[in-house]
């Protein structure tokens, strides 16, 4: 057998045809293996598409442990909410092509956007001639800065304006809210074709004053909500005539769907609420946490409370399910608590005694109290999770 023994021999061998071919082949195989390995590493680090990631996140949320401690309702969190920012890393413009399942209880403020196709499917309206009369009631205080936007949003409503009356109830303002509200009422009838409109000034005291942070301090909520309930009940007393429906709208909303009234009428329920959201860092988030459904856990918690204990949402984790989280159940879903951002009530319910409780009523007050009272009176209370009002 030939064995290379000198440097010249080895050089000769290396330059021979078969060996070069062999080396080249080995090189190619090596490169191929490296590419495969690199692809595998990428898969490990980025195993799912963003849609899949969100889907998994939601599936995991279904199995979150329950909060057993009643006090957790009232625990103050740094940002005053259950804001977990779980979607922070996602591209804001990404929309889900499926409806997330209903969680056992709400644990995030983020309301994912859904595709246009899904939204349209749940917002389709029948072609019909509307004849029901509506009265819009709006409490207001120190809201001068909001009334221009409010006028624009009201004017854009596509429901026949000649079927809508609007009444404003102002008190305790130290800005020009009442004067501007009176001018607004005039314009709504003369310029925008609404049926009737008037601003009332109520001589009541006891409200909570200060900047947003002060009035939303947890300890202030009983006084604040009690006063708001009084303002709403006064409006009802002064403004309700022969209309078929009462629509409550807060004057500091930033955007109403133009078909808000048609959407809420579609539900054909005694009390019906849309979602009330806000936009933050390009995400939609839940604003009005008074719109919720009880769960076994939240109801069990209440059994161990004293009669006058007030449960407040938005001050820590919740054991209830907020309306935006109920979308997987469909277009019109049963709920137990409502807010005042926008709320439709069959006027006869108010005529038969449905009001905003001014004291703790089944552990809630004001709008949430109205929902509880409505249920006690045998009325239907529902939410429309695809209808979005923006605060
Ligand atoms: N009449 C009256 N309206 C009020 C008072 N405080 C707030 N409002 C109005 O009630 C609605 C809801 O109040 P707001 O402070 O926006 O509540 P939030 O959005 O839940 O923080 C808005 O239209 C306010 O202008 C008050 O003391 N008296
Ligand atoms: Mg508000």
Automatic annotation (TrEMBL):
<keyword id="KW-0472">Membrane</keyword>
<keyword id="KW-1133">Transmembrane helix</keyword>
<dbReference type="InterPro" id="IPR052086">
    <property type="entry name" value="Mannan_Polymerase_Subunit"/>
</dbReference>
<dbReference type="Pfam" id="PF03452">
    <property type="entry name" value="Anp1"/>
</dbReference>
<comment type="similarity">
    <text>Belongs to the ANP1/MMN9/VAN1 family.</text>
</comment>
<protein>
    <submittedName>
        <fullName>Uncharacterized protein</fullName>
    </submittedName>
</protein>
<dbReference type="InterPro" id="IPR029044">
    <property type="entry name" value="Nucleotide-diphossugar_trans"/>
</dbReference>
<feature type="transmembrane region" description="Helical">
    <location>
        <begin position="18"/>
        <end position="39"/>
    </location>
</feature>
<keyword id="KW-0812">Transmembrane</keyword>
């Amino acid at each position: 057998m030939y064995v290379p023994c000198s440097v010249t021999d080895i050089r000769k061998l290396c330059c021979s045809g078969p060996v070069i071919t062999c080396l080249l082949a080995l090189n190619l195989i090596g490169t191929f293996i490296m590419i495969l390995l690199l692809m595998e590493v990428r898969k490990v680090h980025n195993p799912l598409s963003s849609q899949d990631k969100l889907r998994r996140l939601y599936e995991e949320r279904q199995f979150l442990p329950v909060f057993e401690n009643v006090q957790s309702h009232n625990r103050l969190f740094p940002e005053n909410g259950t804001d977990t920012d779980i979607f922070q890393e996602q591209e804001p413009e990404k929309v889900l092509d499926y409806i997330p399942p209903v969680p056992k209880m709400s644990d995030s403020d983020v309301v994912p956007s859904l595709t246009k196709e899904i939204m349209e499917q749940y917002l389709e309206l029948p072609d019909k001639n509307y004849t029901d009369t509506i009265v819009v009631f709006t409490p207001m205080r120190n809201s001068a800065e909001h009334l221009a936007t409010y006028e624009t949003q009201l004017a854009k409503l596509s429901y026949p304006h000649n079927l809508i009356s609007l009444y404003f109830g102002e008190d305790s303002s130290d800005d020009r809210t009442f004067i501007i509200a009176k001018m607004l009422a005039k314009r709504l009838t003369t310029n925008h074709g609404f049926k009737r409109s008037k601003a009332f000034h109520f001589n009541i005291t006891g409200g909570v004053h200060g900047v947003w942070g002060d009035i939303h301090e947890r300890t202030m909520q009983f006084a604040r909500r009690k006063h708001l309930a009084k303002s709403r009940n006064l409006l009802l007393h002064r403004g309700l005539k022969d209309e078929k429906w009462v629509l409550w709208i807060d004057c500091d909303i930033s955007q109403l769907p133009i078909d808000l009234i048609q959407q809420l009428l579609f539900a054909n329920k005694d009390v019906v609420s849309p979602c009330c959201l806000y936009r933050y860092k390009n995400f939609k988030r839940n604003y009005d946490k008074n719109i919720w459904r009880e769960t076994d856990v939240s109801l069990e918690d209440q059994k161990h409370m004293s009669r006058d204990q007030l449960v407040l949402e938005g001050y820590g984790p919740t054991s209830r399910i907020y309306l935006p989280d109920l979308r997987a159940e469909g277009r019109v879903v049963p709920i137990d608590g409502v807010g005042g951002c926008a709320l439709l009530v069959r006027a006869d319910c108010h005529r038969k005694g449905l009001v905003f409780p001014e004291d703790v009523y089944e552990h809630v007050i004001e709008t949430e109290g109205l929902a509880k009272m409505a249920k006690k009176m045998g009325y239907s209370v529902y939410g429309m999770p695809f209808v979005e009002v923006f605060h």
